[in-house]
Fold this sequence. Notes:
The protein is mainly α. The chain has one domain (about 10-120, about 135-285): ABC transporter involved in vitamin B12 uptake, BtuC, CATH 1.10.3470. The protein is about 70% helix and about 5% strand. β3 and β4 (about 145) form a beta hairpin. α1 crosses α9 (about 230-240), α2 (about 45-65) packs across α8 and α9 (about 230-240) packs across α10 (about 245-265). About 45% of the residues are buried.
Amino acid sequence: xxTFLGINLFGLFGQLLVGLIxxxxxxxxxxxxxxxxxxxxxxxxAQGAMYMLGxxxxxxxxxxxxxxxxxxxxxxxxxxxxxxILLERVxxxxxxxxxxxxSLLLTFGxxxxxxxxxxxxxxxSGLPYxxxxxxxxxxxxxxxxxxxxxxxxxxxxxxxxGGTWWMIEKTxxxxxxxxxxxxxxxxxxxxxxxxxxxxxxxxxxxGLAGFAGVMAAPVYSVSPEMGSNLLIVVFAIVVIGGMxxxxxxxxxxxxxxxxxxxTKYFYPEASTTVIFLxxxxxxxxxxxGLFGKEA
Length: 295
C-alpha cells in the first residue's frame, strides 16, 4: 500500500476522484442556475427536479423505448429543456416582474409536485441504469484505478461547461443575451425578440440539468429524491461563486467538489457541512461571492 507522510495515497486519490465527479455535477447544475438567475433574474428552485427528470427520462427511454445512453445524452436534455420552456411560458413569465421570492416559491412548489409524482409512480427506492458498454472497464494509474465512465463524466462536464462559458462570454449571441436582460427595450428596438430569447435561455439552463441527470443515472440510483438531495448544496455553491457569475459557478462547483472529497478523507464527519462552512466564510468576507460583482 503506497503511503506518503503517513497518508494512504490510494485512499486520498480515490476521494479526490469522487470529489471531481461530484464537482462535475455541481458545476453543471450551478451553471444552469447561474445562467437563469444571472441573465433572467429568476431563482429556479426546480433545477434539482429537472436533474431528476433527466435521469428518469434516460431510464424510461432505455427500458421502455430501447433508446441507448448515447442517444439519450442528446434527446433527454432537449426534452427537459422543452419542459423548462413550457414552465417558463405558462407559469414563470406571468410573475417574472414580481419580487424574486415569487419565482423561488413557484419553482419550489413545482419541484415538490414533480418529486411527489415520481415517488407515486416509481416508489422511493433507486432504479439501476447500466453503464454503456463502450465505457465499461478502467485504467490502472500509479495510485488509483480510474473507471472509464468516471473519466468520461469529468471530460464531458468540462467540455459542456467550457463551451457554455465561451458562448455566453465570447460570442455575439452571448452579447445579445446580456444586453437583452440589461436593456430589453433597446434590444427590441433593434428587432431582437427578447421574450423568445428569455424563454430559450431558461430552457437551455434547465436542459443542462437534464444533461447532468443522464450522466448521473449510471453512477447514482435513479430516484425521486436525487435532485432534492443535491439542490441545497448547488445553491450554496452558486452563492459562493457569486449569484449570476457563469465562470464562478463552474470553477466553484469543481473546487467545492474537490474540497468535499479531501474533507471526506481527512475529516469525514465534516464532509456534509464543509461547503456550507465555506459559504458562511465567503459571505462574511465577500458578500457578493468569490466572482460576483457588488450591486
